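Hello forum,

I keep getting stuck at the same step: I have a sequence, I want structure tokens, and every attempt I make locally crashes halfway through. Rather than fight my setup again tonight, could one of you with a working pipeline run this one for me? It's a single chain of 210 residues.
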Amino acid sequence: MPPRPVRQLQVLDALRTAYERTGSTPELTALSRSLGISYSTLREHLRALEAKGKLVVESRGPGRSPRLTLLGAPFGVPLYGEIAAGLPIGTYPAPEGHLALRGRPDQFALRVRGDSMADRIENGDVVLLHRAEPHRPGEICAVRVGEDETTLKYLDWPPEDAHPRQYRLRPHNSAFPVVTVAAQELHVEGVFRGLLRGDVVQDLIVEGSE
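Reply #2:
Ran it on my machine without issues. Output:
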């Protein structure tokens, strides 16, 4: 299960995406089903987001879904901090900005620091990621090992009959080592979907951190 701050961001991104598409926020029962969480848990996340100044929850009486008003809601893909030598994704309480790209609630972006994926992904690039499990071995993923920092690597799967079951974190840059990780220690935070490089990143940021 994602850390609570990450789940709150998923809720907020889902609300923003629905508003951008339809001009209104979804009914909470439908939203809780789409996010795979209970209605009561969703209400807890909404109260937390209201306390952070992200939205206003207005009661419409018993049996009716409350009215939600998004406050200063930028639309696009949320841009968090750095990966490879930065903090785990879940430690970021809010994005530093949003990229003016049509995003989905399960998409986010991170700045790359380090050269382990050079020359395919360079230091300073911004990678676009999807909160999901990889569909095939060898995909580039943002992964966390135990309580360590999140890193960006190719994720190689072990054979189905392998015991113990271990994964390989493989860099693109051959100057860096391949790391073998036990399955129970591996946490996939996101799957690579693309990157942005150079001045285009600043051009696409529509709002900085609050």
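Confidence is low (pLDDT under 50) at residues 85-93. If your local run keeps crashing, start a new thread with the error log.
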